[in-house]
Amino acid sequence: MAIKHSEPLSMNDSNIDVLPPPTGYSKRPRVMRFYNTPRIIGRMSVVGEKESKGPVGKYFHKCETDDKMGEKTFERAEIRMFDTAVRGAVRDARLNIEDVDLMISGDLLNQMTTSSYAARDIGVPHIGIYGACSTMTEGLMMSAAFVDAGYFTNIVCAASSHFATAERQFRYPLEYGCQRPPYAQWTVTGAAASVVGKNCKQTERFPKIVMAIPGLITDYGVNDLNNMGAAMAPAAMDTMFTLLTQSGFNVDDFDMIVTGDLGKLGSDILRDLMRERGIKLGQNYIDCGNIIYDVEQKCYQGGSGCACSATIFNSFIMDKLMSGEFKRIAYLATGALMSTQSCYQGETIPGISHAVVVESPYCGED
Amino acid sequence: MAIKHSEPLSMNDSNIDVLPPPTGYSKRPRVMRFYNTPRIIGRMSVVGEKESKGPVGKYFHKCETDDKMGEKTFERAEIRMFDTAVRGAVRDARLNIEDVDLMISGDLLNQMTTSSYAARDIGVPHIGIYGACSTMTEGLMMSAAFVDAGYFTNIVCAASSHFATAERQFRYPLEYGCQRPPYAQWTVTGAAASVVGKNCKQTERFPKIVMAIPGLITDYGVNDLNNMGAAMAPAAMDTMFTLLTQSGFNVDDFDMIVTGDLGKLGSDILRDLMRERGIKLGQNYIDCGNIIYDVEQKCYQGGSGCACSATIFNSFIMDKLMSGEFKRIAYLATGALMSTQSCYQGETIPGISHAVVVESPYCGED
Predict the structure, then answer these.
(1) Which chain A residue shows the shortest CA-CA distance from B219?
(2) Which residue has the higher pLDDT, B1 or A75?
(3) CA distance A34 to A95
(4) DSSP characters for B266-290?
């Protein structure tokens, strides 16, 4: 089944027949509501040089100018970035590592070695999650749930990706110098972490996670390893549709709706898919993959990788939430769940998108 | 740092100096207690032919005699087994797929394609987890927490592994006919699923998950891809030590303490590591890897893989809990968190072990 994407950008709104809800959409409620106000009390984002020169570069907390960061392998470099982000987020929350009850994290590498090796060295109990590039919202969702339910007080969640490790694993060794198709995206080199802590006097000035939606795996038949945006857009649509029909919020209730790393092409597809269902995304919709690089940086459709939305959320978005410029945002990271093996065997690429809704501490004050 | 394993099997108990708690052991509480009594209301285990001929073979629900199950690839066969187990567990809980709120699952393959592709076809919202062979307890822990906290009513959690897909990915293609060292284990071909549902009149005859402990990643320096048991035993020790010092239960409070897939060698190491810390595991300790195959089946140290303990828990152990023969058990699945890439790059193998404590509905009745 191919994506329905017939001339949607020039489509005249008044002519649209609103399509039924997405295939597989279920009316069964799947919004998790957090009544005990878990809060994001610390965060850090680390990126590579290319990312630091992009449009949102000034918001990131640390830039690593050497892709290997003095390590022997790119994989070790990714572990190092991951470690820096986690320890930085914990410090930002004015905690020591010993005060952290649990770490929930993942990455893109086979068997998630970045996250596991970093967790081994950090020495905090660990839950490994896999959601490809949707890892950050999966981690925030689970951390918020565990803190909200009272199982733990402080949980750090994190995600990372690295251009060189991801290219080697998913596409070709860098040394081949392969030409990239115009619809390709560029894997972000970076790592980011958030500390989710329970609501109390000390934490009341921090943004709160008010709800989350676990994603439904959605597959519209894309099988091109380079075209991740098109593969993930239907999953983002499914979760966004659920959010806007089950949460009680409309598009206008959000100062910003942020998707993970659909890129230019993928986010255009998402706008169309939503419009076909009667929901118009306006100026308050952005895609992290679309904004992380400048057109002149030649990354074609934009950024991808776990770190893409994770670093932007933990810097730019969180800054605006802390200051009250954004009162409420929805963050839908998106992941493509294939492996090279599954693609070689002729499988298509399923996508997933988990969502969290985060409110500024100043939300509801005016 | 090498494992301390000097002649422990013949060690005279009276001569032991009790060692301090394991390295990295933290006194910070990490037992999650479930006061709202989430229950395991449905389950299914599917295995391959070899497993069905082992000592616990008669307990499994379904045996697939063809390793490819009529599919084109071993990977598709694993997806099919996974699907059978999930749908079977949901049926066993007298539910329809539409009644299931969430699926939490994982497997061993790169980017967890088995679990993602199966979830795509099943069409239930999905959270992907990665804990290598500890996936089943990770899934039970999260499902129990989400049901206990009231976010969802019915969650299915599942795990799978397949000898042929795992060998190809982690070791050598089967066609090579490689000789296996005597300390190797055999990856179990199988899949298993449990449905965790909330406590109510209809579910009160089912076993309840009363607590869980997320694992700490532990690494004693083993770097041999064939010697998983030795790599995982220290992680099992850490979690078991935490269980026995923080839960309020002693070894004797459990009718059975079950570890995942340490195998013969690994479970001997665990007994020694525990004994060195003053805790003696007796007749009520078993390891699933150790009991799944018969010595005559030439699997050396026994079984491994996510499915090893997942299938035994969902058949043999759950049967005994349902009947009341076991009143309370602790189930500690164990995972080794390396990838082939990390091993080629000279990394050692970190292990993890998540624990759940499950009680029979008849627990506390006598």
Answers:
(1) A120
(2) A75
(3) 23
(4) HHHHHHHHHHHTT----TTEEEHHH
Under 8 Å between Cβ of A241 and A208: no
The structure tokens listed for A70 are 């003095």
Is the reported ipTM for this assembly greater than 0.85?
yes
Hey, are the CB atoms on B129 and A126 less than 8 Å from each other? no
Residue positions counted in chain A: 366
Residue B3: pLDDT band (50, 70, 90) is very low
Helix (H, G, I), strand (E, B) or coil at A154: strand
The pLDDT tens digits for A99-140 are: 999 999 999 999 999 999 999 999 999 999 999 999 999 999
Chain A residue with CA closest to B72: the answer is A345
Measure CB to CB from residue B215 to each of A108, A126, A215 and give the nearest one: A126
B338/A124 touch (CB, cutoff 8 Å), yes or no: no
d(CA A142, CA A335): 16
Determine how many CB atoms are found less than 10 A away from the CB of residue B73. Answer: 17
**pTM for this prediction:** 0.94
* Residue A151 DSSP symbol: S
Q: What is the tens place of the pLDDT at every residue in A179-222?
A: 888 888 999 999 999 999 999 999 999 999 999 999 999 999 99
- First CA to last CA across chain B, in angstroms? 47
What's the rounded Cα separation, in Å, for the pair B68 and B329?
Answer: 34
Give me the residue label for tokens 């279920």: A26
What letter represents residue B65's amino acid? T
- Output the DSSP codes for B331-344: EEEEEE---HHHHH
